[in-house]
């Protein structure tokens, strides 16, 4: 059976994509920043100058200095260590939540997209209901049910990712389904499961990868937002959003408490967005400007 | 030659040594190479060649509507009634566009703005070139034009998606002729249409041209259309004019191997042929044109001289121009 | 067209009902017993039991759900706050306009600056203006709006004392209370809008009908504004729809930071104090608001593109896909 160029493109795909992307300086910058952050986050417990919960009241509100790069907070804790340690939570929440949400979302989207008809209708109505609640509000409500905490936040955020991913994959499926190579596979009695997994999914993957990358960025921001309002991940864990929330009360006397956690979020999200844009340009030149 | 005065001895349209380049991915595309053409008032010049030969580029250069990014008129002059269009200011050029010179485009499906009413798009060109702001008058003229091209005036308020391809092309014609232009550039106006509609649209164009004595540059790759409508013919290959003469001269005595190949490729209705006779090979890569004659790689008459040096225009026996140094050999059929 | 609007409104009904059911069921899983929350820690066992009976809390879920649904949709009664016993609907009536005011202002800032930025970036493609706009857009998307809010408060309220940091005011003078909140909420949307506008314009500018317009002698400014921009509006309107969702959600946090007594502070406060009827009622109301906004967005499409208007009028539903083979 003829394989269309779409399928052939995936073989040898990863190397080609990487090569294409290496030409994009912005994307490579994003990749470098992100990789650095991940490495630092993994190594954090070994490289932080101070324990993140170590309180030194003598240094309360200390301004940034060589011994305390980002200064100290209201309890004399070193902000640099806290931000670095916090990276472990923020980044891992983002990646895990999006990973779980994508797998579930893609499954739902694939089923809806492939089978169409009533199945598709019901799934779409359910997604409509979930999406009728604005994103942040939905996260708040789910977090209210589950309560604060690292794992609970991951669950809440993955639920939030599901509907977006499901919709996207469904749309891709609907497009690809009309192609002749699917008809060809059906005509040789290929099982539905095989058609979905071996033929359709590989060709729908590119927008999903881009969306997942952007999704991680969004999820990190949402997680920080949740922590900021008292849900999400709470002190003493130095999650960036929670740190900002604590910093609020001291905004007049110690503004430096506000700068660094927020900067960390911004830089991470920026790197992820640059990477996502680069992936989008490399994976499908038609989507490029 | 007094170049600053308007020279009434010059033909109505005179293109001299036009050279147009595109930049694409760091490479230079030589789209139009030293093209020289003339056209008299009220006459029709057929510009014949295959896709990518540079015909549309020539037309767009006359109107100066080449895409901003990457395209560039490298050298040459385009005189309209003695005035060099390439030297005009943008403001003055805008007065000419749609007014003195207008264009009919190849693809009617995408030539009209989908979110504006059809009639308004005709009225727009009228109002741009009228000296008053009388909306009612412009609308009236637009409705007149609709009737002239065979569309009922009440369809003024329709949107393009409500029209068929043939009707859309009529609207494009209406827009082009609304201000009674002196020169009409028709870029393959019937290629995208069904065969039955093609005939109607061609007739319409010819009728209007006769009525208003408009000069026309008709771009086409269809020799049948040329035979029906044109007075003079220029054959273009790889951005250069390779043969140029009256319709009779070109059809009766085609002299360039490419032109002969074109005529030979047309299937004969009266004979029982098994195979078509295409011209072997492909047009050259416009970023990497051959050093000598651009047709040499495909030409069975080519010699080393052809391949080494660029070829200038020669005159054939019946007096028309041909860019081939071996026209005698070609005429005799000797390789 | 009217038929289309009616059809959409009717479609909204099952969705809103679905939201109500979903939220109600979720709330039953929330930590804390309702009777304890209402009566407080000093209540006795008997009082608690009596309250449970009064509220019918031991009835099967379906019955309780049915009661709630009929209260909300037939009697338009969202109940009372467990802690303050104030009628929820009347509080929402007070607070919703403030949230809407914030959201609409944010939308205007985003579109008002986003579209021109995108147009400029498109016209000056690959030149320095384009790069600048795109860098600003990237940064705008990356900065979390609650952080920006804090930074703006730091700069404009604390240091410069130009704008108030908290609360709201009345009448025209009250607008200054919305400025910092709206700006902090708008950066993400502004950036999205600019990028979307740029990308749509770049596509449209290459279209044949733009060449036609130029060949008519249309001045370049009109080519951009009259011909290109109008055709670029479709993807921009799409982005506006998603932006509105983000703004409504973002308003939750912004209101908290700026102590604006709107729906955001209402709901978040209720979550923290376990006053669940407010969370339920507020969510349902916001879902309805959001659905209405999506309807308006869809109607805007029809306003801008006559092909879509025709599609609506003919009754073809956009999303219907027939199962193939």
Would you mind describing this structure in some detail?
The complex is a heterotrimer of chains A (289), B (335) and C (325). Chain A is mostly helical and 289 residues long. In chain A, 74% of the residues lie in helices and 0% in strands. Chain A contains eleven helices and no strands. Chain A starts with a helix and ends in a 6-residue tail after the last helix. Chain B is α/β, with parallel strands linked by helices. In chain B, 33% of the residues lie in helices and 22% in strands. In chain B, a hairpin with a 5-residue loop joins strand 11 (314-315) and strand 12. In chain B, helix 5 (135-148) packs across helix 6. The N and C termini of chain B lie far apart (43 Å). The two termini of chain C are 33 Å apart. Chain C is mainly α. Chain C has 13 helices and no strands. Classes of the chains: A mainly alpha (289), B alpha/beta (335), C mainly alpha (325).
Question: Between the first and last Cα atoms of chain C, what is the distance in angstroms?
Answer: 33 Å
User: What overall form of chain C do the CA principal axes indicate?
Assistant: globular
Kindly state the mean pLDDT of chain A as a whole number? Answer: 84
Q: How much helix, percentage-wise, in residues of chain A?
A: over 70%
Given as residue ranges, the uncertain stretches of chain A (5+ residues, pLDDT < 50) are: 1-11
Kindly state the number of beta strands of chain C: 0
Total strands of chain A: the figure is 0
Quick overview:
The complex is a heterotrimer of chains A (289), B (335) and C (325). Chain A is mostly helical and 289 residues long.
Q: What is the element layout, followed by pairings?
A:
The complex is a heterotrimer of chains A (289), B (335) and C (325).
Chain A: H1 5-10, H2 13-22, H3 25-47, H4 79-115, H5 117-131, H6 135-146, H7 150-177, H8 180-187, H9 192-228, H10 240-248, H11 256-283
Helix pairs in contact in A: 2-11, 3-4, 3-11, 4-5, 4-7, 4-9, 4-11, 6-7, 7-9, 8-9, 9-10, 9-11, 10-11
Chain B: E1 13-24, E2 27-39, E3 44-48, H1 55-63, E4 71-80, E5 83-84, H2 90-96, E6 101-104, H3 108-111, H4 118-128, H5 135-148, H6 165-177, E7 183-187, H7 195-212, E8 215-220, H8 223-229, E9 232-237, E10 240-246, H9 247-252, H10 257-265, H11 304-308, E11 314-315, E12 321-322, H12 327-332
Parallel strand pairs in B: 3-8, 3-9, 6-7, 7-8
Antiparallel strand pairs in B: 1-2, 1-4, 4-5, 9-10, 10-12, 11-12
Helix pairs in contact in B: 4-5, 4-6, 5-6, 6-7
Chain C: H1 2-28, H2 34-39, H3 45-55, H4 61-73, H5 88-123, H6 128-142, H7 145-159, H8 176-205, H9 208-215, H10 220-258, H11 263-272, H12 276-304, H13 306-313
């Amino acid at each position: 059976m003829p394989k269309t160029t779409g399928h052939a493109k995936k073989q040898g795909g990863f190397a080609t994509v990487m090569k294409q992307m290496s030409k994009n300086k912005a994307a490579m910058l994003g990749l470098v920043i992100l990789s650095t952050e991940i490495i630092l986050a993994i190594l954090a417990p070994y490289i932080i100058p101070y324990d993140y919960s170590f309180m030194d009241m003598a240094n309360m509100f200390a301004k940034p200095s060589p011994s305390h790069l980002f200064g100290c907070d209201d309890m004399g804790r070193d902000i640099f260590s806290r931000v670095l340690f916090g990276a472990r939570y923020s980044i891992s929440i983002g990646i895990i939540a999006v990973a779980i949400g994508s797998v579930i979302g893609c499954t739902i989207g694939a089923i809806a997209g492939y089978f169409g008809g009533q199945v598709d209708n019901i799934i779409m109505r359910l997604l409509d209901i979930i999406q009728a609640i604005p994103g942040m509000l939905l996260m708040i409500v789910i977090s209210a049910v589950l309560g604060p905490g690292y794992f609970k936040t991951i669950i809440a955020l993955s639920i939030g990712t599901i509907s977006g991913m499901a919709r996207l994959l469904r749309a891709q499926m609907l497009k690809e389904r009309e192609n002749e190579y699917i008809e060809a596979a059906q005509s040789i009695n290929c099982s539905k499961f095989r058609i979905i997994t071996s033929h359709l999914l590989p060709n729908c993957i590119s927008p999903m990868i881009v969306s997942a990358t952007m999704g991680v960025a969004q999820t990190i921001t949402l997680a920080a937002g949740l922590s900021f309002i008292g849900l999400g991940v709470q002190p003493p864990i130095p999650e960036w959003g929670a740190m900002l929330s604590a910093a609020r009360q001291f905004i007049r006397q110690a503004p430096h408490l506000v700068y660094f956690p927020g900067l960390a979020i911004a830089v991470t999200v920026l790197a992820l967005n640059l990477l996502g844009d680069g992936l989008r340009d490399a994976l499908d030149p038609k989507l490029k400007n | 030659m007094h170049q600053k005065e308007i020279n009434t001895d010059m033909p109505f349209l005179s293109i001299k040594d036009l050279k147009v380049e595109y930049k694409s991915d760091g490479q230079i595309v030589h789209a139009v190479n030293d093209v020289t053409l003339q056209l008299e008032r009220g006459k029709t010049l057929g510009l014949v060649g295959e896709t990518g030969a540079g015909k549309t580029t020539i037309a767009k250069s006359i109107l100066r509507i080449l895409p901003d990014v990457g395209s560039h008129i490298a050298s040459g002059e385009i005189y309209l009634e003695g005035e060099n269009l390439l030297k005009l200011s943008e403001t003055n050029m805008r007065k000419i566009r749609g007014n003195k010179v207008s264009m009919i485009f190849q693809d009617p499906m995408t030539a009209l703005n989908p979110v504006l009413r059809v009639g308004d798009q005709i009225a727009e060109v009228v109002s741009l070139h009228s000296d008053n702001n009388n909306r009612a008058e412009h609308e009236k003229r637009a409705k007149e034009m609709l009737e002239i091209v065979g569309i009922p005036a009440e369809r003024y308020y329709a949107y393009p998606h409500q029209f068929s391809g043939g009707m859309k092309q009529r609207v494009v014609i209406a827009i082009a002729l609304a201000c009674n232009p002196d020169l009409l550039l028709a870029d393959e106006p019937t290629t995208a249409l069904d065969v039955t509609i093609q005939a109607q649209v061609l007739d319409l164009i010819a009728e209007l041209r006769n009525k208003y004595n408009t000069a026309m540059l008709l771009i086409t790759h269809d020799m049948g259309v040329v035979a029906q409508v044109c007075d003079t013919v220029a054959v273009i290959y790889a951005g250069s004019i390779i043969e140029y003469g009256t319709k009779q001269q070109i059809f009766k005595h085609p002299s360039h191997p490419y032109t002969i190949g074109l005529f030979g490729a047309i299937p004969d209705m009266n004979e029982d042929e098994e195979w078509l006779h295409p011209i072997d090979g492909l047009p050259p890569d416009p970023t990497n044109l051959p050093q000598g004659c651009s047709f040499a790689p495909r030409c069975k008459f080519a010699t080393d001289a052809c391949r080494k040096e660029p070829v200038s225009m020669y005159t054939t026996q019946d007096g028309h121009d041909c860019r081939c140094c071996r026209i005698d050999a070609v005429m005799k059929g000797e390789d | 067209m009217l038929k289309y609007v009616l059809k959409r409104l009717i479609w909204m009904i099952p969705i809103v009902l679905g939201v109500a059911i979903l939220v109600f069921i979720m709330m039953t899983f929330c930590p804390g017993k309702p009777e304890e929350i209402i009566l407080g820690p000093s209540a006795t066992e008997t009082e608690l039991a009596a309250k449970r009976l009064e509220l019918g809390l031991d009835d099967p879920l379906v019955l309780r759900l049915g009661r709630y649904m009929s209260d909300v949709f037939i009697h338009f009664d969202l109940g009372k706050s467990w802690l303050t016993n104030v009628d929820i609907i009347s509080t929402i009536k007070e607070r919703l306009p403030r949230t809407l005011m914030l959201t609409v202002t944010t939308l205007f800032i985003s579109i008002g600056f986003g579209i021109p930025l995108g147009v400029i970036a498109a016209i000056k493609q690959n030149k320095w203006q384009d790069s600048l706009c795109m860098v600003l857009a990237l940064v705008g998307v990356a900065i979390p709006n609650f952080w920006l809010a804090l930074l703006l408060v730091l700069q404009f309220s604390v240091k410069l004392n130009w704008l108030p940091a908290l609360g709201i005011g009345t009448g025209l003078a009250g607008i200054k209370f919305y400025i910092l909140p709206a700006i902090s909420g708008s950066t993400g949307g502004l950036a999205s809008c600019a990028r979307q506008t740029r990308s749509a314009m770049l596509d449209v500018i290459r279209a044949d009908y733009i060449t036609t317009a130029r060949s008519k002698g249309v001045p370049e400014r009109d080519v951009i504004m009259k011909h290109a921009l109008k055709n670029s509006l479709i993807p921009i309107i799409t982005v506006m729809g998603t932006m509105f969702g983000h703004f409504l959600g973002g308003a939750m946090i912004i209101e908290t930071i700026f102590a604006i007594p709107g729906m955001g502070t209402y709901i978040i406060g209720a979550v923290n104090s376990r006053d669940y009827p407010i969370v339920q009622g507020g969510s349902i109301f916001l879902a309805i608001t959001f659905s209405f906004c999506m309807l308006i967005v869809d109607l805007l499409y029809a306003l801008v593109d006559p092909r879509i208007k025709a599609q609506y009028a003919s009754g073809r539903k956009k999303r219907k896909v027939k199962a193939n083979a």
